[in-house]
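Quick one, tokens below:
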């Protein structure tokens, strides 16, 4: 939002559930940021991702804020870096850093960036008023031990969960270094926090897949008794079948719009903003996937989103229980898709493209599922030897 700011506009800027910004139409680069708490601050930006908080509206008038913004833009044009950016920033708390710096950047630059901010606020609530320069190895080691010991509710916290919390904070502090708010990120050296991924690729056996399909069919059968025109009880079966036949991630599936699906070309477009790699890709659809989407379109009342729910955790858990499938995550459907392809002799690089892996190393975990591929390669030596002259 861009308006010609006045003292009256600044004072009367409404409070909302989420922080928002108003760009000044008079002084280029000047931004008024309004927090849900009522706190209002001046921010100056001179390049993409380059910004600095000038101060609160209580301590800096509109005229002074404009003067600072004009000077910063002039210096940025002449020297590439305004003087205010070169100065050592005053110490700020984790709360202030998230509100004034990281949250605005994450919401525009990261896929679902708001979740990272909320994760940090929730998991490090006791540190929000601590200066970011004091978030050192000693303090985070204490947090790490307490996090693993206490757990959440009745269920203890796994190391992988604690690691994701830690990694979110560590990444945020790396941005603080980039923005000259910190001299260095002291958390980068804490490599012992890393956890290894699951070493065994989990996919469904033929019997498990059969039980899962039976459980879905049984679940959907009830809806046909009350509405003969509906094929599915709800979104769960279409989502699961689409994952099994495309290898798409849960977030990619849940964020689909009908405009992303080309029934004629038999492809799904995974938009860059929804892809983990940040790159757009097109996923081909087989017959079952086409049939599922065609049927779901007739069942669904949505004109935009393919699937409305934000998550499917409860329904997915119940489905696994009914099918007697254990130790299996929704993400493992992606492994199941890849494993079936490799077992059928599909080239690993083709599987990599379908999964959207940026590195073949991620796809090599499935190589052992097709040992005949290696045997066939070695067998070519016998063929070439037989063609040699005696």
């Amino acid at each position: 939002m861009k308006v010609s700011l006045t003292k009256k506009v600044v004072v009367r800027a409404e409070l909302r559930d989420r922080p928002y910004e108003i760009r000044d139409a008079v002084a280029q680069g000047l931004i008024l940021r309004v927090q849900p708490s009522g706190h209002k601050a001046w921010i100056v930006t001179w390049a993409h991702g380059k910004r600095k908080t000038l101060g609160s509206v209580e301590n800096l008038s509109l005229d002074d804020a404009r003067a600072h913004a004009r000077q910063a833009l002039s210096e940025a044009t002449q020297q590439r870096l305004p003087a205010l950016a070169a100065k050592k920033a005053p110490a700020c708390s984790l709360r202030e850093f998230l509100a004034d710096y990281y949250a605005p950047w994450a919401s525009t630059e990261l896929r679902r960036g708001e979740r990272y901010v909320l994760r940090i606020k929730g998991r490090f609530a006791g540190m929000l008023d601590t200066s970011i320069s004091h978030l050192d190895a000693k303090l985070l080691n204490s947090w790490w031990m307490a996090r693993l010991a206490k757990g959440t509710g009745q269920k203890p916290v796994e190391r992988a969960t604690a690691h994701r919390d830690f990694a979110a904070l560590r990444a945020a502090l790396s941005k603080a270094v980039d923005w000259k708010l910190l001299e260095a990120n002291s958390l980068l050296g804490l490599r012992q926090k890393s956890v290894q991924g699951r070493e065994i690729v989990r996919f469904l056996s033929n019997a498990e897949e059969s039980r899962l399909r039976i459980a879905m069919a049984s679940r959907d059968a009830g809806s046909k008794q009350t509405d003969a025109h509906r094929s599915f009880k709800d979104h769960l079966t279409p989502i699961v079948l689409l994952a099994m036949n495309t290898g798409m991630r849960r977030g990619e599936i849940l964020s689909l719009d009908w405009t992303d699906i080309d029934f004629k070309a038999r492809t799904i477009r995974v938009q860059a903003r929804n892809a983990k790699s940040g790159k757009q890709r097109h996923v081909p659809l087989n017959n079952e996937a086409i049939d599922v989407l065609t049927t779901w379109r007739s069942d669904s009342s949505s004109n935009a989103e393919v699937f409305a729910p934000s998550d499917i955790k409860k329904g997915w858990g119940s489905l696994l229980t009914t099918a007697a499938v254990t130790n299996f995550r929704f993400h493992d459907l992606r492994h199941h898709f890849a494993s079936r392809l490799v077992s059928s002799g599909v080239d690993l690089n083709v599987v990599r493209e379908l999964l959207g892996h940026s590195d073949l190393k991620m796809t090599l975990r499935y190589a052992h599922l097709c040992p005949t591929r290696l045997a066939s390669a070695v067998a070519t030596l016998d063929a070439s030897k037989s063609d040699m002259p005696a």
